[in-house]
UniProtKB/TrEMBL annotation, chain A:
Region (Disordered): 1-20
Gene3D superfamilies, alphabetized: MetI-like
Main location per the UniProt record: membrane
Pfam families cross-referenced by the UniProt entry: BPD_transp_1, OppC_N
Membrane-related topology note: Multi-pass membrane protein
Name of the protein: Peptide ABC transporter permease
This protein's record includes keyword Transport: yes
Upper lineage: Bacteria, Bacillati, Bacillota, Clostridia, Eubacteriales
Keywords on record: Cell membrane, Membrane, Peptide transport, Protein transport, Transmembrane, Transmembrane helix, Transport
Organism: Sulfobacillus thermotolerans
Transmembrane segments: 38-58, 98-126, 138-155, 161-179, 217-242, 272-293
Family to which the UniProt record says this protein belongs: Belongs to the binding-protein-dependent transport system permease family. OppBC subfamily.
Domain ABC transmembrane type-1: 100-290
Length: 304, 330, 333
């Protein structure tokens, strides 16, 4: 029993309101430890700023220039232009909002479904657990991406929230498993029984006692879900099965490969490379930053 | 052995239930589609001058259910048809049975996926062992890095990259189509060579994009086995290095069977991109074509077959796992 | 019999350890787990090595085989096994051959000392092949004999996987592995820690009877003074990676000289005695800070410390026939 109490009290400061300043300070200290982490954070912040302010930097209808179709890289067009003479950089910047917003929504949905179902499954066990785990197995087995493609026939992916929701619905299986097994191992350490004998409510036990202990998994999965969702949504647009938007990264890829012939004509190459570059830099940022997140949320690493 | 068979039977039953759930899902999906394609088709056929009975028959043959029946009757009829392996008739291929079309497409996908899977498994696992054993040397770090990078690159980017490098920059390999159309299909040398040459890039895309996953998993698995007591014990008993390596590999490879399940789904998902990029006539391409041309019976059928393939692969992986791990047999 | 077909080490082989130093590198610095130990293990006897957890006794055992697991490292010293040579300078292949063949080792975690995916019998064969045993059938017969002698259904055990055996059975299988190649020296690292009282007693009985029968050299590592008192001819007390005291078991038990040894003896409740009479050892085992200081390692916990003890480490010196001890107070007498 003393174990349960001491563990929960040691993890409390990281989410209690009074603990916030020190949590942020600690996080910052960990981030600046390695330059890679700072670069990662910088990249993420840059893209977040693009998503928030990008669309305000340009007119609603991006200017076209019939004289500069597939223009090469220049000061005026740092990433070249597309088939209408629109700046690729402008397309990428204004397109970031949909991509990132949808990915963020997807990550939130994934984490909410995955965590809630995993916690409930590991806490209640019995038939609740078997039902939830059956569904989880189902979600994990069903080929997710083809399912998305099929769903695109009925679902309107024009809104990032809608896209995020569907990505979340199809992607929570792995996290639910991980959270469940963590909950089970806490249970084995006598955690849940101890909290119950103290007369704490299930809600309190689940969200105040157990949740902080699976925080590292959730934080890691949040970021991994972001990259996974970015790939999935860009992939959907790349296949051309969802509504057409000129500044969408995936649509740009699709047009570059299948209409502009970027694979064989060097002229259209910048049009193909711009969205790829954006994707890869963003992924790199997330991967570099993950390292820091691991250390911030993983209590075992913290003590070392 | 008896326990293995019971486990296998349970898995198969669960798989069949899953297929039925997916079939039901596609049924309701088509029913709920905006503008209800089934009624729309029926109306179109009436307008073309068919009698209601003729039109109803034509629609029933295509979709496997009759538009004017109550929903539950349509559903039962549809499921009954599926159990008889009747997936309806394609719209875009002018009434060809869907089963016929997807069975023609399936081998392309299954061969590509299987080859890619086996290749990536072998290379990834070996590289994972090296990365684990030499984890403190530059060679080990380099191998691990290669795995992280391959793991991080999305399949479509990998496909585009390979296509660009090996067909545009260096025109080493052919691009698009599964074989040279000028050759006569059959069991002859030039045709088989052409098949292989056309398959290299798609297979490489599958293989490279799953190589990283195998490598990273195997690496961490080997590292955890290296820390196990029995490995130290075997060292202290003076067991030969080659035998110890066998112990390590055998124990470390087991957890990979669970990853296998996830990998299969991922590979078949990838077939959409890879077959699209390399213009390969497999299931993924078929699914995309069906969606493009609003050929819903074909779409349902292709999706169903992809699901079946993934489920079967899962069952096989689980069966192999229970054969190689004595602890399961209890 | 197979025993004759196997080349054996000369009877009653001993071990000579000189200046042995093993260091563990941790995040906070280097911990000397074994700090310059000189020790002679007498052949044909049972030597008990006793100490708290963290005293370096298990590390010492692994170092005798030159098999200290990472992050531990043998920095200097020599371990000369009679009939084998210096384990520190032998080539790798000869070292490997010596392990198992000349020196058998029963693991602290013998519960998990077997490959979970291979039948026990196959692992016996793997062991035989690793040591170039020609007659593998004879080896299996030998394994069966040993298992039966330890009261097990040998055929069943050999066709079993590890998970099909209980803890006590696995421990006995571990002993079988240490003996099946007719090793003359057997090191048992906490062989009974994870067992219930009944299994403990039977395992110890087996060790005793086999030792008597074959005149083996046995090194028994334990934290349990009772086990040492029951079995060992000689006892060696370790503290903080160094030797504190050694001597014949009855001498040491009857007249412990080092205050730490006295504490250890006082800490065990006599089977017949009252639990209240047991006095737990005060203080905590040495930490990194202790090793940096010049003081005697036991200084912080010693009830009889003197001024001298704070600035110098006591040398390990002869204190009677077959007795050695590292304590200024004892030397001053």
């Amino acid at each position: 029993m003393s174990l349960a109490v001491s563990t929960s009290s040691s993890s409390r400061p990281s989410n209690g309101p009074s603990g916030h300043p020190s949590f942020l300070k600690n996080a910052w200290r960990i981030i600046v430890k390695k330059p890679g982490r700072l670069i990662g954070l910088g990249i993420i912040v840059l893209f977040a700023l693009m998503a928030i302010f990008g669309p305000y930097l340009y007119p609603k209808q991006l200017p076209i220039n019939p004289n500069a179709i597939y223009a090469p890289i220049s000061w005026r067009y740092p990433l070249g232009t597309d088939f209408e003479g629109t700046s690729n950089l402008a397309l990428i910047i204004t397109g970031a909002r949909y991509v990132l917003f949808a990915a963020a929504m997807a990550a939130v949905f994934t984490v909410v479904f995955g965590t809630a179902l995993g916690l409930i499954s590991g806490y209640y066990l019995g038939w609740t657990d078997s039902v939830i785990m059956r569904i989880t197995d189902f979600i994990l087995t069903i080929p997710g991406f083809p399912l998305l493609v099929v769903l695109s026939t009925v679902w309107n992916f024009g809104q990032p929230v809608a896209m995020g929701f569907v990505l979340g619905i199809t992607g929570w299986g792995g996290l639910a498993r991980a959270v469940r097994s963590q909950t089970l191992s806490l249970r084995e350490r006598g955690f849940i029984e101890a909290a119950r004998t103290l007369g704490l409510s299930p809600f309190h036990i689940l969200f105040r006692e157990i949740l902080p202990n699976v925080g590292s998994y959730i934080a890691m999965n949040l970021l991994l879900a972001v990259t996974g969702s970015i790939y999935a949504e860009v992939g959907l647009f790349f296949l051309g099965v969802v509504p057409f938007q000129v500044n969408n990264w995936g649509v740009m890829l699709n047009l570059a490969v299948f209409s502009a012939g970027a694979m064989s004509s060097a002229q259209a190459l910048p049009y193909l490379l711009s969205p790829l570059l954006a994707l890869l830099i963003l992924t790199l940022g997330v991967v570099l930053f993950l390292d820091a997140v691991d250390e911030i949320f993983n209590p075992r690493l913290k003590e070392a | 052995m008896k326990n293995i068979l019971i486990r296998l039977a349970k898995r198969i039953v669960a798989g069949i239930v899953m297929v039925l759930v997916v079939a039901s899902f596609t049924f309701f999906l088509v029913r709920m589609m905006p503008g209800n394609p089934v009624s729309a088709k029926y109306n179109e056929l009436i307008m073309r001058g068919m009698t209601p009975v003729q039109a109803m028959d034509a629609v029933r043959v295509m979709y496997g259910f009759i538009p004017h029946q109550p929903l539950w009757q349509q559903y039962l009829h549809y499921i009954g048809q599926i159990l008889h392996l009747n997936l309806g008739r394609s719209i875009s291929y002018e009434g060809v049975p869907v089963l016929h079309i997807i069975l023609n497409a399936a081998p392309w996908t299954i061969i590509l996926v299987t080859t890619g899977l086996i290749a990536s498994f072998i290379v990834g696992v070996l590289a994972g062992v090296i990365a684990a054993v030499k984890r403190s040397s530059p060679v080990g770090s380099a191998i691990t890095l290669s795995g992280s990078i391959m793991h991080g690159i999305p399949q479509f980017v990998m496909g585009l990259f390979l296509a660009y490098v090996f067909t545009t920059i260096w025109a080493l390999l052919p691009f698009g189509a599964p074989y040279n159309a000028a050759l006569t299909p059959g069991f002859n040398g030039p045709f088989i060579m052409s098949l292989i040459r056309h398959a290299i890039l798609p297979v490489a895309t599958y293989a490279l994009s799953s190589y990283g996953g195998w490598l990273l998993t195997m690496k961490s698995s080997v590292i955890s086995v290296l820390g196990d007591d029995f490995i130290l014990a075997s060292e202290v008993r003076g067991i030969k290095a080659s035998t110890r390596l066998r112990y390590i590999a055998h124990n470390a490879i087991l957890p990979l069977f669970t990853i296998f399940a996830l990998s299969i789904g991922f590979m078949f998902g990838g077939s959409l991109f890879i077959e699209d990029i390399f213009d390969y006539p497999g299931l993924g391409n078929l699914l995309l074509h069906a969606i493009d041309s609003r050929d819903y019976p074909l779409m349902s059928g292709a999706f169903l077959l992809i699901t079946v393939a993934v489920i079967v692969a899962n069952i096989v992986a689980d069966f192999l796992y229970s054969v190689v791990d004595p602890r399961i047999r209890r | 019999m197979s025993a004759n077909s196997l080349p054996t080490a000369p009877p009653a082989a001993g071990i000579t350890i000189r200046g042995l130093e093993v260091v563990y590198t941790t995040g906070q610095g280097q911990i000397p787990a074994v700090n310059g130990i000189n020790l002679d293990i007498v052949g044909g006897q049972i030597t008990g090595i006793i100490g708290e957890s963290g005293s370096g006794k298990s590390t010492l055992a692994m170092a005798m085989m030159n098999a200290v697991p990472h992050p531990g490292k043998i920095v200097k010293g020599s371990v000369i096994i009679d009939g084998v040579g210096n384990m520190m300078t032998l080539d790798k292949e000869s070292q490997r051959r010596a392990r198992g063949r000349h020196v058998g080792f029963v693991f602290q975690a013998a519960q998990n000392s077997l490959n979970p995916l291979t039948r026990i019998g196959h692992q016996v064969l793997d062991l035989g092949r690793s040591h170039n045993v020609k007659d593998l059938r004879a080896l299996l017969r030998r394994a069966k004999e040993l298992l039966e002698r330890m009261g097990m259904d040998a055929d069943r055990v050999l066709t079993s996987y590890q998970h099909e055996l209980s803890g006590g059975m696995r421990q006995r299988v571990g002993i079988m592995f240490a003996l099946v190649l007719d090793a003359q020296i057997v090191i048992l690292d906490e062989p009974t820690t994870a067992l219930d009282m009944l299994s403990q007693a039977s395992v110890l009985e087996i060790v005793r009877s086999i030792q008597e029968e074959r005149g083996l050299t046995i090194i028994l590592i334990t934290h349990d003074m009772g086990v040492v008192a029951d079995l060992a001819d000689r006892v060696i007390v370790m503290y903080g990676g160094e030797l504190a005291e050694e001597g014949k078991t009855e001498d040491v038990l009857a007249h412990p000289q080092h205050p730490y040894t006295r504490g250890l003896i006082r800490a065990i409740p006599r089977i017949s005695g009252n639990l209240d009479q047991a006095v737990a050892l005060a203080g905590s085992p040495p930490d990194l800070q202790t090793f940096v200081q010049n003081a005697c390692l036991f200084y912080d916990r010693c009830p009889e410390r003197m001024a001298q003890c704070q600035n110098h480490r006591p040398p390990y010196e002869i204190a009677g026939p077959g007795r050695k001890v590292a304590c200024f107070k004892v030397m001053a007498k």
